[in-house]
Amino acid sequence: MTEAIEHRAQCTGELDGDRDVEAVVRPEGAVYVAVVVAQDAGVDLLGVVGAVLVNSFGTQWFDTWLPSGYTATWYGEAWRQYALFDVILVTLEVSALVVGLSLLIGAPAAYVLARRDFPGKRLLYLVFLLPILMPPITYGIPLATVLYKYGLAGNLSGVVLANLVPSVPFVILTMTPFLEQVDPRLEDAARMCGASTRAVFLRILAPLLVPGLLAASILVLVRTVGMFELTFLTAGPDSQTLVVKLYNTMSSAGIRAQQSIDAMAVIYTSMMLVLVVVALRFINPTQLVARVKEDTDS
Predict the structure, then answer these.
(1) Residue 235 to residue 227: CA distance in whole angstroms
(2) Contacts of 59 (CB under 8 A, 6+ apart)
């Protein structure tokens, strides 16, 4: 009799211990836990970023809640001491070269994958996915070894070549859905009217693919500016991007003002935030979904 009463209480949630278990098992409880965890992570991230931002303007900050004074001179000191103008210039050069070469290689490859069916196509997609899915350090060390062996690392060309490995597949996988959304009959009609292959690409496909090219360019730009592993493994003293320069400044020997390092970190974070905002402004995520091919068996 007692066991029957306890079983009924468990089913109705009348036992105090089972109420907590039920709250966790229910979907509402799971959502609540996820929200709490996300809020905690957001607060922690905001605290770290806020501390770095405040310290970059502080004169002294030791055992108080806030710095004893504020100044913006640390940004000027960081700009001069770490030669940030040259570092940002190298970052822009690397990013521009990687974006341009990735589009030149990736766009034609994406066209072939979108328009042609051939044996091993799925396997080729898997090969393109590997540099994106795998951590860069897993293939970055062998890649850097090969580049150093042939004298291609330690300079700007080595950094560009290393960043092309994940960037070209990224362009291919980004451009393929845009190409699949373009009706192939437009190309056939242009060729029937006497248009050459070059004219079809420049006058038919290029205007239609501007959103895709822009999306791929911005995404590769964000990825290249934020790429640390491959750039760190292949960069030389004069080919360091901003993220690598920031790491080397923090880890190298010597005494430096923490405020100037935090000022460099704020500059890097601001650059990345601007790129992310631009990417979200010009990229429509719904266009990155491949078009469902219509069934021709009718």
Answers:
(1) 12
(2) 67, 68, 69, 70, 71
| Helical ranges in 118-228 per DSSP H | 121-133, 136-149, 156-180, 184-192, 197-199, 206-208, 210-226
Tokens representing 15 are: 């036992």
CA angle 220, 169, 176 (to 5 degrees): 95
pTM of the full predicted structure?
0.77
CB under 8 Å to 55, separation ≥6 — which residues? 61, 67, 258, 259, 262
**What residues pair up with 70 in beta bridges, in sequence order?**
58
Pairwise CA distance, residues 240 & 292, whole Å: 43
Res. 125 pLDDT band, cuts 50 70 90: confident
Cross-strand partners of 58 = 70
Q: What is the distance between the alpha carbons of residues 224 and 231, in angstroms, rounded to a whole number? A: 9
- Residue ranges, comma separated, of all CATH 1.10.3720.10 domains in the chain are 76-288
Task: Give 118's pLDDT tier (boundaries 50, 70, 90).
Answer: confident
CA atoms within 13 A on the CB side of 276: 7
Closest by CA to 69, choosing from 50, 54, 47, is: 54
Tell which CATH architecture fits domain 76-288. Answer: Orthogonal Bundle (1.10)
Helix axes 242-251, 84-115, angle to 10 degrees: 130
